[in-house]
Amino acid sequence: DGGITQSPKYLFRKEGQNVTLSCEQNLNHDAMYWYRQDPGQGLRLIYYSQIVNDFQKGDIAEGYSVSREKKESFPLTVTSAQKNPTAFYLCASSMKYRKTTNEKLFFGSGTQLSVL
Amino acid sequence: GQQLNQSPQSMFIQEGEDVSMNCTSSSIFNTWLWYKQEPGEGPVLLIALYKAGELTSNGRLTAQFGITRKDSFLNISASIPSDVGIYFCAGQAGGSSNTGKLIFGQGTTLQVKP
Q1: Which among B48, B28, B24, B40 has a CA at the least distance from the CA of B105?
Q2: Does B33 touch chain A if contact means CB atoms closer than 8 Å?
Q3: Nearest-neighbour CA in chain A from B40: distance (Å)
Q4: Distance (Å, rounded) from C-alpha A105 to C-alpha A94?
Q5: pLDDT tens by residue, A17-36
Q6: pLDDT of B45-90, one tens digit each?
Q7: Residues of A in contact with B24 (CB under 8 A)
Q8: What are the residues whose beta carbons fall under 8 Å from the beta carbon of A39, sequence distance 6 or more?
Q9: Which residue of A has its CA nearest to B47?
Q10: Distance (Å, whole) CA A75 – CA A78
Q11: From CA A20, how far away is CA A65, in angstroms rounded?
Q12: What is the pLDDT of residues A48-81, one digit of tens each?
């Protein structure tokens, strides 16, 4: 079945450690996104990628990094510079980048990151 | 930055009751999306709206794109226990404010008592 797969489901980070969250999609979508969700808040955009080998910062990119070497994959690294990393992280994709079209956004099932 | 105000923040209702929630924006939007998120899962798209005044249904769910283009409403009729979850609105600004980014409301947490 086509969809977006995030792994792991739960992840723990030690102080000073970088951790990487995986996101893979087999929907043949061009655009991919990373959102952060905190309790009682809306989703906030971290990074997005319109096409392979290209990505842009979202609203809260500090302390995070991404890569887009393959169309199917958009991993997110939470670096030690992110001082408050505990949150639920959601990966999403759309067929095309939304600015030029009204593409629907499809989400993965999320990764819960906690600090040890 | 642009913000969406979603209300109510939470609802606790009896099974069989109807539910209404809404989102308002300070600027004009050209797209409204409504998502449902169950605990520990990603949001799932319920309804997408693209034109002012548009009214769209998906089973017991009905959503409307406000005529002013600054608000949207979601109604759930005859609620059942599996309607439990967090409902998010999301919108995309129109015209010169369009960056392609979706802006999300804070969510409405719905609990249904059998």
Answers
A1: B24
A2: yes
A3: 7
A4: 5
A5: 999 999 999 999 999 999 99
A6: 999 999 999 999 999 999 999 999 999 999 999 999 999 999 999 9
A7: none
A8: none
A9: A104
A10: 10
A11: 9
A12: 999 999 999 999 999 999 999 999 999 999 999 8
CB contact (8 A) between residue B42 and residue A58 = no
Identify any residues that bridge with B20 across adjacent strands, giving them in sequence order.
Answer: B75
CA dist B35 and B55 (Å) reads 16
Average pLDDT of chain B?
Answer: 91
Contact A19, A111 (CB under 8 A): no
Contact A98/B42, CB-based, under 8 Å? no
Residue B1, pLDDT > 60, answer no
pLDDT at B3 over 80: no
Q: Report the SS3 class of residue A107.
A: strand
What spatial distance separates the first Cα and last Cα of chain A, rounded to whole Å?
35
